[in-house]
Amino acid sequence: xxxxxxxxxxxxxxxxxIEKIKSNKEKHILVKNLVGGQHPFVLIxxxxxxxxxxxxxxxxxxxxxxxxxxxGNVINEGELASxxxxxxxxxxxxxxxxxxxxxxxxxxxxxHEKGKYLGAILxxxxxxxxxxxxxxxxxxxxxxAQAEFIKSKFPSYTGLIKYGLYDIETNEVKIY
Length: 176
Fold this sequence. Notes:
With 176 residues, the chain is α/β, with parallel strands linked by helices. The chain is built from seven helices and five strands; from the N terminus they run ααβαβαβαααββ. Strands 2-1-3-4-5 form a five-stranded mixed β-sheet.
């Protein structure tokens, strides 16, 4: 896609989205009701990968999921602030760290790739996957380590903290 066409595509997509909301009575009412506040039932930390879209994967609607996306589903300070908001202010009782197969960040960490700013993510993942034999195993280990990290940062949280793996080839999610 040409650079000049990107903004036009985004604006046209937004207009289409607005028309879909207006033409669907249930969705129109939902959007109006969400103006007053959100009440998601799950907080999902997942990868920024464009193939991993929790609302699609779990067939959920606007307002259902509180989603944090970051390469390799790595949790650093900014993500911790969003998690804190979700569990302490939105009172979400279920947290899911969702890794996925064919993750570029996991691949980069396992192959010791470098980048000017990627270090914060790749070092984190590398520490979690050093003994893994496959990238799929590494994605699971990384998600598990991120879940344990959240537990250590929010020891008084009484909700569930789980981790899982989304398989890009089969579209199946396994939750551990």
